[in-house]
Amino acid sequence: MTTANQTDTPILEVKDLHVSIDGQEILRGVDLTVRPGEVHAIMGPNGSGKSTLANTLAGRPEYTVTSGKVLYNGADLLKMQPEDRAREGMFLAFQYPIELPGVRAWQFLKAAIDAKRVHQGEEEMGAREFDRLLRSKVEEVEIDPELVRRSVNEGFSGGEKKRNEVLQMALLEPKLALLDETDSGLDIDALRIVSDGVNRLRRPDNAAVVVTHYQRILNYIKPDYVHVLVDGRIALSGGPELAEQLEARGYDWVREGVDAASG
User: ABC transporter domain: which residues (predicted)?
Assistant: First the structure.
């Protein structure tokens, strides 16, 4: 369970968040509080708004916030540009990581680390220091060292792309990691490696929000809280046992409860 002190300032506070895409409302009043040391799982059926929540928090421009408030470490997240959110320690692991032809993975990683360091008033990392750090993290997340010499994600398998994102997380050490269905398309071995990488990053001063449709990744990444998103709202919250109930019963019983309450 969580190692957080419940009097700590939350890393993330989402209050009555409404979000639209192309004029269609997807999130219809989401409330969520994430404190240091916690892992929250966001589950729900397809189209419920899970990925919309993660992408909105990261600042993707196609998602329009129509009302609500989001605080990140006490600051107004919605006033921050996406790149500033990243520099302040927010990380989004994509459901479908994109390829960057012509950009070497190690160059991309060093540029990301240097951008964060400069934002924090530090000097850029020296080449030798970065090389040592990169080698240690490559071993830690069990990724093929050859992949960091190639263009970012170009020709990578699905599992290699996800490992590459875990490598990025290991290097950047985010304050808040948003994992958008990072288990999508992974076999059991890749799922274990990705989950182990996420678990190694868990500390009392950071947090993670794991967005997933299935319970299986939560066998490896143990959440403190599970929230069920239905029709753009959090319909039910509970502990890790809630994920097991969802695996056994599906989502219809949650939706039926929502319909009964609204009726």
Answer: 12-256
Q: Rounded CA gap, 236 and 245, in Å? A: 12
Q: Which residues form the domain of 214?
A: 12-262
Residue 2 lies in a domain: no
Count of the separate structural domains present in the chain? 1
Pairing of strands 75-76, 24-34: unpaired
